[in-house]
Automatic annotation (TrEMBL), chain A:
<dbReference type="InterPro" id="IPR035895">
    <property type="entry name" value="HPr-like_sf"/>
</dbReference>
<keyword id="KW-0598">Phosphotransferase system</keyword>
<dbReference type="InterPro" id="IPR050399">
    <property type="entry name" value="HPr"/>
</dbReference>
<comment type="function">
    <text>General (non sugar-specific) component of the phosphoenolpyruvate-dependent sugar phosphotransferase system (sugar PTS). This major carbohydrate active-transport system catalyzes the phosphorylation of incoming sugar substrates concomitantly with their translocation across the cell membrane. The phosphoryl group from phosphoenolpyruvate (PEP) is transferred to the phosphoryl carrier protein HPr by enzyme I. Phospho-HPr then transfers it to the PTS EIIA domain.</text>
</comment>
<dbReference type="Pfam" id="PF00381">
    <property type="entry name" value="PTS-HPr"/>
</dbReference>
<dbReference type="InterPro" id="IPR001020">
    <property type="entry name" value="PTS_HPr_His_P_site"/>
</dbReference>
<feature type="domain" description="HPr">
    <location>
        <begin position="1"/>
        <end position="92"/>
    </location>
</feature>
<keyword id="KW-0963">Cytoplasm</keyword>
<dbReference type="InterPro" id="IPR000032">
    <property type="entry name" value="HPr-like"/>
</dbReference>
From TrEMBL, chain B:
<dbReference type="InterPro" id="IPR015813">
    <property type="entry name" value="Pyrv/PenolPyrv_kinase-like_dom"/>
</dbReference>
<comment type="similarity">
    <text>Belongs to the PEP-utilizing enzyme family.</text>
</comment>
<dbReference type="Pfam" id="PF00381">
    <property type="entry name" value="PTS-HPr"/>
</dbReference>
<keyword id="KW-0808">Transferase</keyword>
<dbReference type="Pfam" id="PF02896">
    <property type="entry name" value="PEP-utilizers_C"/>
</dbReference>
<feature type="compositionally biased region" description="Low complexity">
    <location>
        <begin position="253"/>
        <end position="277"/>
    </location>
</feature>
<dbReference type="InterPro" id="IPR004701">
    <property type="entry name" value="PTS_EIIA_man-typ"/>
</dbReference>
<comment type="function">
    <text>General (non sugar-specific) component of the phosphoenolpyruvate-dependent sugar phosphotransferase system (sugar PTS). This major carbohydrate active-transport system catalyzes the phosphorylation of incoming sugar substrates concomitantly with their translocation across the cell membrane. Enzyme I transfers the phosphoryl group from phosphoenolpyruvate (PEP) to the phosphoryl carrier protein (HPr).</text>
</comment>
<dbReference type="Pfam" id="PF00391">
    <property type="entry name" value="PEP-utilizers"/>
</dbReference>
């Protein structure tokens, strides 16, 4: 199991546009990735490819989330996902 | 007040009948309960439901039961045997369903007894029978009371005469008075009818211009006649809607009138709470009607799926979701910007793995049919969103859109949302959701007509942005048949259904004529009003010149600062400002210093943690924190102005005190800038415009912020749009305050907000005393044209009427009436 922490950079938090960009990126990976708030227990982690789950996670700007994945290439995949979360997607 | 139970085979029929009846009485109607359908979506009636409905609305004064037909009567009779409280009087009415219900609701709202209501309902066919010439109309044999002691004759002024709504107002007004009143139509010579009976009053058939004789007896007879006279004299409150209807035909200028359509003047076309059709985005368009598909209802419960069929049913959900997502992605590929983002996100939601899993497990686990499974699965997500509130709750409409699309796909119905057309059409909808409007293509959608909505609704704002004519609050719009050709006038709110050839020719001529501006703004009688352009960056200068703007009334400088981590340097600013100044040699260019904060945050001047940014460090206040930014900018403006020939004025945003104006003028003077002004965007500045104008050379009204602060209503909240309307009389009075100060000081006061782009409002602003109007270049033609068609006195009269009006609707109506010749 690989695990990464990321700080949400988008001003509005992990909301509509940022969430859709992130969910689409996760959806393209051949891995199952979960996401949870740093403050929540690991068993509450949700499917990171689900835009609805991402939105209901309610991660605000500055919140820290934990990404988890298992399997080949998990580390590289998580690194790329962290990069997306730590970019202010609204500013683009 | 008695209670009313409506028994019908069809829940839809019952709801529609109740809705229609309640339109007559507004909010203060009697308690009504519906017992309709035999449950499980089956047409029929159910005695238990009727009994429950009676219990629900029971009152000591009694309950009247209205039924549609056949077994409804039997169910209602049986229900009487189940009643828990035998002391409540309950009557079953033999009245006609629709007419009777309407009459009963009106009478019950007026506080009549069970027996009176029942009798009224039973006689409710009278109006129709009398109109159609049937023998012996029922219900007209009501006693007209003792001989009248007082009589008046009054002439009806309102466009539709004594139709349903005025009748209901009349009865309500008289219901509290101790008087017996009768009404007779002198034109028809028919016998007087009692004025407490809606059906009887409707048979009077009094039209606009008819004189009615009103007789009253009893202790308060005089008061009763005064009440009637007052209502008639005020046209039952309907005179204000005249401009929204077809203009009166005049021999000199034949005018289009609604031909045969439901929209002409049907008595039910304007309920008591609505202001009738309202043009909210100016312009004229012709096209066939295309209706938005009606929204979906929740799929009713049906039998559990057998286990053997569940897997196939689950596969249908996956297929439907994929198909919806694909359609949405295809649509996304055809648009750009924000619309594309919305559609991409919606596509992701449509095939959200969590959502699909939840729906599929409802099918495989408990045997739900796919459409119900999807409906319920989305409902669960929506509940989470609702609970979290805020931004998430705001996404619920998108979620419901996804649900509707998938369920429609499963049911094989047309996808909800904007129709896919390539030929021009007029869009008719109950209301438009933002997701729909994002896709409207002004090249094919020629006009928008909606049942709901007001002048500041989403539809109205969008239509104006797209330059599409729009009419809202057209209550019977959905009755217009798909495909029939209509002429839509978004200025007057008039809709002509199935126009004649003549009307078509005239409309097309008018559409072909593009309003242009000749470069000199003035009223018909030569009162000069400078018409200027708002310019947001050097890129938009060409458009302003193309539109023949007399100059620039608002040159926004934020473009220089956006996307910068730190303020731009002097040279960069000088170069940018020179580009705009150079385009207007010898012309006025009013440049505004940096206006950051609130909805325009800039990293280097605004703090991210303000609780209430609209009331925080914004506008001129940012200079408190970073005075050197303002000094650099003023230096850049002075340098650029010296290098070019434009007549440069410089103004500060968001001034609230005289001291700020003095401070700004001093800073400008230090940089050699002498034509100095301030923006009046706060009520504080509007009210103290006199002393402010003693210290500066000019002022410019920012109407968007002035409306926001006057009405204490956040501009960015759609829900507050009705308050954030520059037509609010309070805002108009603020503007007047500032303009009058300008006239007294003999210093120019212009308007550079959104308001100046609305031609009718532009005329009001001129009437209030504005000396120049600055707007987006595309609005110049329309504003110049209207101003050129009216006199300055007309503008002044309209301004007085609008500022004195009691509401935005009344302000618009009054202005439209007084500026009317402009549209002839």
């Amino acid at each position: 199991m690989s695990e990464r922490k990321a700080t949400i950079a988008s001003r509005v938090g992990l909301h509509a546009r940022p969430a859709s960009i992130f969910a689409a990126a996760v959806g393209e990976l051949p891995l199952e990735v979960t996401i949870s708030l740093e403050t929540d227990p690991a068993e509450d982690a949700m499917d990171a490819s689900s835009i609805l789950s991402l939105m209901s996670l309610g991660a605000a700007n500055g919140d820290v989330v934990v990404l988890r994945a298992e399997g080949d290439g998990a580390d590289a995949a998580l690194d790329s996902l962290v990069k997306i979360l730590e970019t202010d997607l609204d500013a683009e | 007040m008695i209670g009313i139970v409506v028994v019908s085979h069809s829940p839809k029929l019952a709801r529609a009948a109740v809705e229609l009846a309640l339109e007559m009485v507004g909010v203060a109607g009697p308690a009504i309960a519906i017992a309709a359908g035999a449950g499980e979506g089956v047409t029929g009636t159910d005695a238990f439901k009727v009994a429950e409905a009676i219990a629900e609305v029971s009152s000591p004064e009694g309950v009247l039961v209205m039924m549609d037909l056949g077994s409804a009567v039997m169910s209602a009779e049986m229900a009487l045997e189940f009643l828990e409280d035998p002391d409540i009087p309950v009557r079953l009415s033999s009245a006609p369903f629709v007419e009777g219900l309407m009459a009963a609701v009106v009478r019950a709202a007026g506080g009549a007894t069970l027996a009176e209501v029942e009798r009224e309902a039973r006689g409710a066919l009278g109006a129709k029978q009398s109109h159609l010439g049937d023998e012996d109309p029922a219900g007209l044999t009501v006693d007209t009371g003792p001989a009248a002691e007082h009589t008046i004759e009054v002439t009806l002024l309102n466009p539709d005469g004594l139709h349903a709504r005025p009748v209901s107002m009349l009865i309500t007004a008289l219901s509290t008075l101790e008087a017996t009143v009768t009404v007779a139509n002198l034109r028809t010579g028919q016998a007087p009818v009692p004025a407490n009976s809606p059906t009887a009053l409707l048979t009077v058939g009094a039209r606009k211009g008819d004189t009615i004789s009103v007789a009253a007896a009893g202790r308060q007879a005089v008061e009763a006649l005064e009440a009637v006279s007052d209502l008639v004299g005020k046209g039952f409150g309907e005179l204000g809607t005249v401009p929204a209807r077809a203009p009166e035909p005049s021999p000199a200028q034949p005018q289009a009138r609604p031909a045969s359509g439901a929209l002409s003047s049907g008595p039910l076309s304007s309920g008591p709470l609505s202001s009738g059709p309202l043009g909210v985005s100016p312009g004229l368009a012709v096209g066939p009607i295309v209706r938005m598909p009606e929204p979906l209802d929740e799929p009713g419960p049906v039998a559990e799926l057998p286990v053997s069929e569940r897997e196939a049913a689950a596969d249908r959900i996956v297929a439907a979701s994929a198909s919806v997502a694909l359609t949405l992605r295809e649509k996304a590929a055809r648009v750009s910007g924000a619309a594309r983002g919305i559609l991409d996100a919606t596509a992701l939601m449509a095939e959200d793995p969590g959502l699909i899993d939840a729906a599929v497990s409802r099918v495989t686990g408990q045997g739900d049919v796919p459409e119900r499974a999807v409906w319920a699965a989305v409902g669960e997500v929506a509940a989470v969103f609702t609970q979290q509130g805020g931004l998430l709750a705001a996404r619920i409409p998108d979620l419901n859109d996804v649900r509707n699309r998938i369920v429609s796909e499963l049911l094989g119905r047309p996808a909800p949302g904007l129709p896919d057309r390539s030929e021009p059409y007029v869009l008719v909808a109950r209301d438009l959701a933002p997701a729909d409007t994002a896709l409207i293509d002004p090249a094919v959608c020629r006009a928008i007509v909606t049942v709901e909505g007001g002048p500041t609704s989403h539809t109205a704002i969008l239509a104006r942005a797209l330059g599409l004519p729009a009419v809202v609050a057209v209550r019977d719009a959905l009755d217009l048949p798909e495909g029939s050709v209509v002429i839509v006038d978004g200025t007057t709110g008039e809709i002509v259904v199935d126009p004649t050839d003549d009307q078509m020719v005239r409309a097309e001529e008018q559409i072909g004529r593009v309003a242009t501006f000749d470069g000199t703004g003035q009223t018909r009688d030569g009162h000069r009003v400078q018409l200027l352009a708002n310019v947001a960056s050097p890129d938009s200068v060409a458009e302003a010149i193309e539109a023949k703007a007399e100059g620039v009334g608002l040159f926004r400088t934020e473009f220089c600062f956006l996307d910068h981590a730190e303020a731009p340097g002097l040279d960069e600013q000088v170069a940018a400002y020179r580009q705009v100044f150079a385009a207007f040699p010898g012309r006025k260019v009013t440049i505004r210093t940096l206006d950051a904060g609130a909805d325009k945050p800039l990293a280097f001047v605004t703090a991210a943690d303000e609780v209430n940014p609209a009331l925080g460090i914004r506008g001129y206040r940012t200079a408190w924190r970073r005075p050197e930014l303002l000094d650099t900018q003023l230096q850049a403006i002075a340098t650029a102005a010296a290098a070019e020939d434009a007549v440069v004025g410089v103004m500060a945003p968001m001034i609230a005190t005289v001291d700020e104006a003095v401070d700004f003028a001093a800073r400008c003077a230090a940089h050699g800038l002498h034509n100095v002004g301030v923006m009046i965007e706060t009520p504080a500045a509007a009210i103290t415009a006199g002393p402010i104008l003693e210290r500066v050379d000019f002022a410019s009204l920012g109407t968007n912020d002035l409306a926001q602060y006057t009405m204490a209503a956040d501009r960015l909240m759609g829900e507050l749009a009705l308050l954030n309307d520059p037509w609010q009389p309070a805002v108009l009075r603020m503007i007047r305050e500032a303009c009058q100060a300008g006239l007294a000081a003999e210093k120019p006061v212009g308007v550079c907000g959104e308001a100046a782009a609305d031609p009718m409002l532009a005329a009001i602003l001129v009437g209030l005393g504005a000396t120049s109007l600055s707007m987006s270049p595309r609005a110049l033609g329309g504003v110049a044209e209207l101003l050129g068609a009216v006199t300055v006195d007309q503008c002044r009269d309209a301004a007085v009427a609008a500022a004195d009006a009691g509401s935005t609707g009344a302000a618009r109506s009054a202005a439209a009436a007084l500026l009317e010749p402009a549209r002839a």
